[in-house]
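Progress note, sequence design subtask.
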C-alpha cells in the first residue's frame, strides 16, 4: 500500500488545502492529513479543533486525519509512508518548500516530496487570509468548505 502524508497547520483548512488533499487521495492508496502542532506559531484553533474541522470536510475512506508534534520524517518512517504531498501556490512558496523537501530527503532518503500546483482559483487562498477577512466581517463562504463556515465565523468574526 502506497501511503502519502499531507502535512500542514490547517488553521483552519481551506478549499485550497482540500483540493490538494483530495487530489493526493486519487494518486495514493492512503493519505494521512497530518496536523502539525507548532508551539512557536500562534494559532486560532487548537490542534483538536483543527482535526475536528478537517474531519467535517473529508468523507473519503482512504483519507485519514492525525497529528504529530515531532519530526515529520519520523512519523513517515513509523507509518511506512512513501511520499509527502505539498501544494504550491506561487513561486513565493517554492524556496521554503524546496528547502524542506531537501532536508526531509537528507534525513530520510526513501521519502519523496511531491508538489501539486494549486488550482487557479485557490492561488491567493491561505488560512491567514481567511482569518483576516473573517475578522473584518467579510464573506468567507467561497474560501472554505460550507460545513465549517460557521465554526470559523464563531471563532474569528470581530477578532480585531
Ligand atoms: P498555510 O500556508 O495556509 O498556513 P499550511 O501550513 O496549513 O497552510 O499548508 C499545508 C500545505 O497546504 C502546504 O503544502 C501549502 O503549500 C498547501 N496550501 C496551502 N494553501 C493552499 C492553496 N490555497 N492551494 C494549494 N495548496 C495550498
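Output:
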Amino acid at each position: 500500500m502506497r501511503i502519502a502524508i499531507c502535512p500542514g497547520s490547517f488553521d483552519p483548512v481551506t478549499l485550497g488545502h482540500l483540493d490538494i488533499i483530495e487530489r493526493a487521495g486519487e494518486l495514493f492508496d492512503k493519505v494521512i492529513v497530518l496536523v502539525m502542532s507548532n508551539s512557536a506559531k500562534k494559532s486560532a484553533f487548537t490542534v483538536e479543533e483543527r482535526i475536528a474541522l478537517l474531519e467535517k470536510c473529508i468523507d473519503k475512506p482512504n483519507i485519514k486525519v492525525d497529528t504529530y508534534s515531532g519530526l515529520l520524517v519520523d512519523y513517515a518512517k513509523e507509518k511506512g509512508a512513501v511520499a509527502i504531498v505539498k501544494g504550491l501556490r506561487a513561486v513565493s512558496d517554492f524556496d521554503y518548500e524546496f528547502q524542506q523537501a531537501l532536508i526531509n530527503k537528507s534525513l530520510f532518503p526513501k521519502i519523496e516530496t511531491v508538489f501539486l500546483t494549486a488550482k487557479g482559483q485557490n492561488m491567493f487562498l491561505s488560512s491567514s487570509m481567511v482569518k483576516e477577512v473573517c475578522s473584518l466581517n467579510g464573506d468567507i463562504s467561497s474560501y472554505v468548505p460550507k460545513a465549517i463556515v460557521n465554526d470559523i465565523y464563531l471563532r474569528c468574526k470581530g477578532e480585531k
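The chain has six helices and five strands. Work on this subtask will continue into the next period as scheduled.
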